[in-house]
Backbone:
């Protein structure tokens, strides 16, 4: 069954700059540049009725356009073998407010709360095998990675399909600033 998530799309220039960082790490599955995004809320599997209620709730989320910039690198989980490489997002109170409003909208349609704290990041690779040295080298080499600021004026509801070549995303709805 497909899964839903809410995300911000990245401009092509930012996706290209991130893609330029990709390198050889054994067992790394790099996210296709066209699928790079900033997840705001993972929802999971839902039925059509719940999806309709989510869309309705998101249409009521109000925000003003704001700017973001990409900043730094890291991995998850922090105290175990790395399974995800990510690019960070510079601190932004408007982003945190938008995510909080989205969380409240999800709560209004009785979605279970996300058990993880929101940590703004862009997943760039998933790791199948422990590669501590290579991951540490990647983090060290790219820790100061930054992009120019870019404007955020909308967010999207995506449906994710898992396939042999990785996840495929289909945009189900878009929501613009007030």
Residues:
């Amino acid at each position: 069954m497909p899964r839903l998530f809410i995300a911000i799309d990245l401009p092509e220039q930012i996706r290209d700059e991130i893609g330029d960082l990709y390198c050889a790490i054994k067992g790394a599955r790099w996210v296709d540049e066209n699928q790079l995004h900033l997840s705001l809320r993972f929802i999971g599997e839902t039925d059509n009725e719940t999806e309709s209620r989510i869309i309705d709730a998101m249409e009521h989320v109000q925000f003003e356009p704001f700017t973001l910039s990409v900043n730094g690198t890291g991995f998850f989980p922090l105290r175990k073998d790395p399974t995800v490489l990510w690019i960070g997002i510079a601190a932004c109170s408007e982003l945190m407010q938008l995510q909080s409003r989205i969380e409240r909208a999800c709560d209004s349609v009785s979605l279970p709360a996300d058990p993880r704290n929101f940590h703004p990041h862009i997943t760039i690779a998933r790791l199948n095998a422990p590669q501590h040295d290579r991951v540490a080298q990647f983090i060290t080499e790219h820790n100061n990675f930054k992009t120019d600021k870019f404007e955020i004026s909308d967010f999207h509801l995506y449906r994710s399909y898992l396939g042999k070549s990785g996840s495929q995303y289909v945009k189900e709805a878009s929501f613009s600033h007030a």
About this structure: Helices lie at 12-19, 48-58, 93-108, 132-142. The beta strands are 3-9, 28-30, 37-45, 66-68, 70-76, 84-89, 121-127, 150-152, 154-163, 166-176. The chain has a mean pLDDT of 93. The chain has four helices and ten strands.
